[in-house]
TrEMBL record:
It catalyses: 1-(2-carboxyphenylamino)-1-deoxy-D-ribulose 5-phosphate + H(+) = (1S,2R)-1-C-(indol-3-yl)glycerol 3-phosphate + CO2 + H2O. It comes from Halobium salinum. Pfam families: IGPS (PF00218). This is Indole-3-glycerol phosphate synthase. The keyword DNA damage does not apply. One of its GO terms (molecular function) is indole-3-glycerol-phosphate synthase activity. HAMAP family: IGPS_A (MF_00134_A). The gene is trpC.
Amino acid sequence: MNASDEEMAPAVRSILDAARERPGGEERLAVDARSLPEAFAAAEADGRVPVVAEVKPTSPTTEGTREDDPVELAREMVEGGAAALSVLTEPAHFGGSTENLSRIRAAVDVPVLRKDFLVREDQLDAVESDVVLLIARFVGDDLPRLLEAAEERGFQALVEVHGEGELERALDAGATLVGVNNRDLGKLEVDLGTFESVVGPNRERVPDDVTLVAESGITTAADARRMRDAGADGLLVGSAIMADGSVRSNTETFTRASPEGKS
């Protein structure tokens, strides 16, 4: 593990410590994954902004817990135009579960991302999903091996980065789905300029077949347009969609944000 625990916020260190102790699956999975890039393309063709809407009951950076049935929330998000879903399976800090993911994936026809903090290969085998999250800062030099292990099982892997160095490592490892997290895991501060500063100077280095996702801090339609203008192929939106009110209406705020001006 290359990530320096001392450089992370206490809440993130707690998440990482719990992730290291969490068991994996007992049998190796083989997944027939729904394509995230194809789902994004279908949304574009339909005039929608490609949004990965996140079913997130709670988190260390939000207040309160949403008690709605996760499956009903997921269906509302899809009805609101979400191209894909992200489902938390981390139990201790986010109130997620693998059971929720399985129920949601069975109930919808869009790709489902397993949002968790995976640090070992056997943890890939805990539940079937279409996409798994690999956080470059958490997995360090194990990234190429874990990326290969995920793809061998049929998963697509969204490799999350925060800086230019991590973007380079992700591309060198062969990642074709890259998420740029606007949240600094060291301070838990959000800055939408992160996506712009990571992607902007390196846009020519990113192959055409790499899908870029802007993550965290997208709270308004204006934020969505800003990330799209900066080159985001898709947006991952959690807290703003899970906020009070209609999840379907909250999702539409982002899927109907004008895609014009996308790089």
